C-alpha cells in the first residue's frame, strides 16, 4: 500500500487536539484517509454517500459540538460537492476540517480520470488552505478554531495502490504530537462606551447560538426598557420580544425610532425592515461587537467602530450604564395580532402559529428552512423562546437544511425538528439516504406545491413566467421519501386532521417521523397580504 508518509501523524494530531468526529464519503483514492480515521479508534465516523449532504451533516455536528468536524472525500468533483456546506460554515463561523484526496501532482491536467484542480478549491471561503506535501497539522485545528472560527482545507495527493495488502497494518506515527491550540483571549478598551450614558439606545442581535449567561444580561437590559431587536435565529429571551418586523411595517414610525447609539451582536438578520430603517435613519454611533479582527460587515450602513471581543464582556459593561429608553420601539400592541389568530383559517400563517405553539411545549431543538419558513416564525404570535433555533443563514440557501438537522440530531436526546418547505425538502432529501436518521428526528414539510415566496415578492409576483420558472410548481409529496428511509409518515389537509396527528407526531417512537401539511399557495398569499396590511398604518 502506497501510504502517504505522515498521514497517520496528521490524523492522530487532529485527535490529540480534540477532534473526534469525521464524516467520510466513499471513494477509492481517499481510502487511506478513511482507514486512518476508522482504524485510529478515537473518532466517531459517519458514512454519507452524497458529498453535498455529507458537508451539511458535518455542519450540523459542528454546530452542536462547537468543535471541528472532519469531512473526507475522494478526488475530482466530490470535493466541489462539499462547497455549499463549506461556504455556509465560513459565513456562520463553524469549524470544519476538509480533507480531499487528490491525484499526485504529475497527473493534474493530463486528462486522467477524476482529476480537477483541487488546490485552493474553495477560494476565499476557507480560512486556511494547506497542501499535504508541506503540512503542519497543528495549524488545521488552530486555524479552524481561531476567531472567527470557520472551515479549513487540506488537499492530500495519494498514489496507488490505495488498499493495504492482506494482514498489512497501518504505519505508526513518526513525529512528535503537535502542540495544543491556544485559546483566544480578548481585551478591549471599555472607554469606548463611556459616552453612551443618557443617549437613546438601540441594541440589535443577529443570528447566534443560545447562551444562558448572555441571555440573562440581555433580559436585564430589556427590563430596563432598552429595546433589543432580534429575529428568532438570535435565540433571545422572551423579555426582548417586540415583534420588530411587524412594528416596522409602518414606515411612518421610522423617524421616531432613530437611535443616538446602536450596538450589534451576533451575525446576520433575516428581517430587511430593520436594515432599511437604520440605513435611512442612521444612529450617530454604531458599534459591531465581534472578535473578527479583519472583516467589518456593515448591513446597517452606519458602522463607526468595531469592538473586537466577545459578547459577554460587552454586555457586562452595558448593564452598568445609565441608558436612555427608546420608548418609540416599545410601543408594540399585540391586540391586532391576537385577533387575527383567534379564528383559525387553513393557511400557512395560522398553521405555523399552531405548530410553533406545539413545538414550544416539547423538549426540542428546531432547524428552520430558508425562504418563507424562517420568516413565518418571526411573524406569528407564538414564539420559540424556550427552543433553540438553528437556520442556515450564513448564505441563506435552501440546500442542506435537512442534512444539517440530521447531523445535529446525532448529539442530542431532544427531539430535533426540521421545519421546511416542500422545495427545500425535495432539494435535500438525500439527507435521509444514510443510516443516521434516528428516532428523535421530526420533519415537518409545508407542501404548497412550489417556491411560494416568489408570489409575495414585489416585481416577481406579476411576471408571466412566475409559475414555471420561479415558483416551479411541482406535484411531489414526501410520502415515498419517508417510507424509503423507514420513517413514519403523517399528513394533514385541514385543522381537524392536523389536531389529530400532532400528538402522535411528537410522541416518542422507535423511528423518526415526517409530517406533511398541504395548503393552497394562493390562499396562503392572500392571508399573508391581509395580515401585513394590518400593521402598515
Automatic annotation (TrEMBL):
It catalyses: isochorismate + 2-oxoglutarate + H(+) = 5-enolpyruvoyl-6-hydroxy-2-succinyl-cyclohex-3-ene-1-carboxylate + CO2. Its cofactor is thiamine diphosphate; Mg(2+); Mn(2+). CDD domains: TPP_PYR_MenD, TPP_SHCHC_synthase. One of its GO terms (molecular function) is 2-succinyl-5-enolpyruvyl-6-hydroxy-3-cyclohexene-1-carboxylic-acid synthase activity. Binds 1 thiamine pyrophosphate per subunit. Its EC number is 2.2.1.9. Pathway: Quinol/quinone metabolism; menaquinone biosynthesis; Quinol/quinone metabolism; 1,4-dihydroxy-2-naphthoate biosynthesis; 1,4-dihydroxy-2-naphthoate from chorismate: step 2/7. Pfam families: TPP_enzyme_M_2, TPP_enzyme_N. It comes from the Bacteria. Transmembrane segments: none annotated. Keywords: Magnesium, Manganese, Menaquinone biosynthesis, Metal-binding, Thiamine pyrophosphate, Transferase. Residues 193-363 form the Menaquinone biosynthesis protein MenD middle domain. InterPro entries: MenaQ_synth_MenD, MenD_middle, THDP-binding, Thiamin_PyroP_enz_TPP-bd_dom. Residues 10-115 form the Thiamine pyrophosphate enzyme N-terminal TPP-binding domain. Belongs to the TPP enzyme family. MenD subfamily. Homodimer. Catalyzes the thiamine diphosphate-dependent decarboxylation of 2-oxoglutarate and the subsequent addition of the resulting succinic semialdehyde-thiamine pyrophosphate anion to isochorismate to yield 2-succinyl-5-enolpyruvyl-6-hydroxy-3-cyclohexene-1-carboxylate (SEPHCHC). This is 2-succinyl-5-enolpyruvyl-6-hydroxy-3-cyclohexene-1-carboxylate synthase. The lineage of its organism: Bacteria, Pseudomonadati, Bacteroidota, Cytophagia, Cytophagales.
